[in-house]
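Bit of a strange request maybe. I'm writing a small parser for structure token strings and I need a real example to test against, not something I typed by hand. Could someone generate the tokens for this chain?
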Amino acid sequence: MNTEIAVKKFGIGDILSVGWAVFTANWKAILVAILVVYAPLNIITAISSPTGLQRSMEEGGGAQALSGIVSVLVGLVGIIAYMGIAYIVEKALHGQALTWKEGLSWGFARWLPGLGTSLLVMLILVGLTLLLIIPGIIFGVYYTFSLYVVALRNLAGKPALDYSK
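Reply from user aminoacidic:
Good idea to test on real output. This should exercise your parser:
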């Protein structure tokens, strides 16, 4: 399938067809990777939500502060699944089936570069958006694929942003 992707110009129908074929061939690994990472995170998020904690905490910002901390942790840990699933899909395109453990192991191994690159993107986008909204939007589109680049092309930081652009 990899040679077809390299030489053929894909339309939206082709993209959906190949995407569906890859998903159906690897749905177990993708689903388990999602469940292993996001199910516990969503349970923790639900338990720590301000409405769920208000019964057990006094009035004030404690519940909202805890909810904010949990939201940040969800984002930090979610990077592992994001990059792991991208790795599973890329290997499937190359004809190699991976397990969910192999995908998440890869995501975990690339977690620190992914975290650093995500923080760099956030700093750039917040700075640009505060100064000029339109360039912030443009660079947001440029850097959309930066985590995929970290996961799949072994780049991080500014080189990953340049590759994404």
